Amino acid sequence: MHGTKAVIPTGPNLWIDRLRIPPGSQIPQRPWIARGLLLRKCVTELIAATAVGKSSFGLALAMHLAAGRNFGRFFINKRFRVAILSVEEDEDEVHRRCSAIAERYGFDYNNELSGYLWRVHCRQDKHVLARADRKGMVLATPDLKELEERLFRDGIDVVIIDPFVEVWEGNENDNGQIKQAAALLRGLARRIEIACLLMHHVRKGAVDPGDIDASRGGSSLGGLVRLAFTLTGMTAEQAKSLNITDEDLRRSVVRLDNAKVSYLPKSSDTDWFRFESIEIGNGNQENPEGDSAGVLVPWKPPGLFAGISPHKITTALDRIAAGLEDGRLFSLHKQAKQRWAGQVLVEEFGWTEEAAGLGLKVWEESGLVYECEYTNTKKGQPEKGLRVDDSKRP
Questions:
Q1: Pairing mode, strands 32-34 and 38-39
Q2: How many beta carbons lie within 10 A of that of residue 367, not counting itself?
Q3: Which among 32, 38, 33, 81 is positioned nearest to 229, based on CA atoms?
Q4: Are residues 216 and 203 in contact, defined by beta-carbon separation less than 8 angstroms?
């Protein structure tokens, strides 16, 4: 069990008291379940298009939580009980996917997962947790109240709801109704102190990684959740920027990007995953090969500078160090236009602008290039420009 149910105070609905700030050492740490991804009493939104892999991501995460193993960069320090409410997939398909995940990651059903993975069932496979009435007010159904009681009774730490659109009835284009429906789930998470991972479809059209407004329906959901991510496929342009020429590889790769992270420093990091096809071993005489299922596995793009000669790298760094002909220094930021150092990488390496931006970021994070203040002789004013640390040249 993760604790006792919070006691709701009696008396007036609103009161004011004096704020007393204890020493930092006495303040409890945030109750992360998976640092940066799942937090008790909070809703995390995962925005993804159909068939990109949000269900596969959710199942893989659930099994890592149950086993107490890190999932990619997400730190999980112990075993957690996870309940899965999967509307789109029937029980047999969930079993196939979980079997493939266990095979790929080497999970032991009896020792690592037993008693820590749960499935939410409902009669007639209809999971309606909230419903809008004739006046447009979204109210909890008896199923939501029963779900809360059972999650609390069984000591569940995380509930995964896949997808959000299937568990409530109302107008998903109405911001007020979207907010009310999500607030009911947030209330559940707060009352019994669990984390909720909410899978959500994207709107029509292209989706930019990290765009919280990409979610389907009203946009108010993004304001209610505390953490949000997008899961998108790798585009041809992104593949080119990463020097990936294998089309089959490109189609098997997805990226997870921060869309909203309220309790951690802002980060532009991208987590990459690749689908691997895993046979689950259920072959028979009619079909000896049996079934297979795609499993998402953490993946790292090949080196960005692979294939770039040391001479070209030296030339690019020399140009950045020298600055422009009028004495101004290059900038890390594309908004600087002709001062943007990425243009040097475009010209020297034949890269796209996106690849050049990634390359500059790699150099900045390694300390090879850094910003400092200098006087712009053209304007006679101080501004920030780019220098090269020669001691860190490759």
A1: antiparallel
A2: 10
A3: 38
A4: yes
Is the per-residue pLDDT at 271 higher than 70? yes
* Residues 44, 260: Cα–Cα separation, whole Å: 9
Q: Which residue has the tokens 């707060």?
A: 190
The three-state DSSP-derived secondary structure of 65-109 is HHHCCCECCECCCCCCCEEEEECCCCHHHHHHHHHHHHHHHCCCH
Q: Count the residues in the chain.
A: 394
CB of 58 within 8 A of CB of 87?
no
Cα dihedral 236→162→170→206 (10° resolution): 0
pLDDT for residue 197 is more than 70: yes
Residue 376's pLDDT band (boundaries 50, 70, 90)?
Answer: confident
Q: What is the pLDDT of residue 2?
A: 56
- Say which residues have a Cβ less than 8 Å from residue 232's Cβ, sequence separation at least 6: 48, 49, 52, 207, 209, 254, 255, 257
Which residues lie closer than 8 Å to 349 by C-beta, 6 or more apart?
Answer: 308, 312, 316, 355, 356, 359
First CA to last CA distance, the chain: 52
| pLDDT, the chain, mean | 90
Tokens representing 219 are 């946009």
